[in-house]
Here is the input.
Amino acid sequence: VQLVESGGGSVQAGGSLRLSCVASGYVDDIMCMAWFRQEPGTGREGVATIYTGGEDTYYADSVKGRAIISQDNATNTVYLQLNTLKPEDTATYYCAAGTLPSLNSAHFDYWGQGTQVTVS
Here is the structure.
């Protein structure tokens, strides 16, 4: 499974971004997709996850009410809409795929290369 993220960039505080992640390869066994983020020198923080077989979603408290994770199963794409961005949202955002809906990075087998989000 290959994951390719896009949509990162620089934005002013209060603004919005939409991140995209396209999955390819053998995706039939993938049961959930998620977004994580990481700042240099810190561990990966789970941001949001979605069950690919339905619409169950889970969010980290740090983004609850400001983030929306969604998917388009026809194109194997998962999105993360981030609103009311804050400087503390600055990080590299990673897309991940796995079999257990979770915000724990240990539950995910496949990762994208990351896309940088900078909020000033």
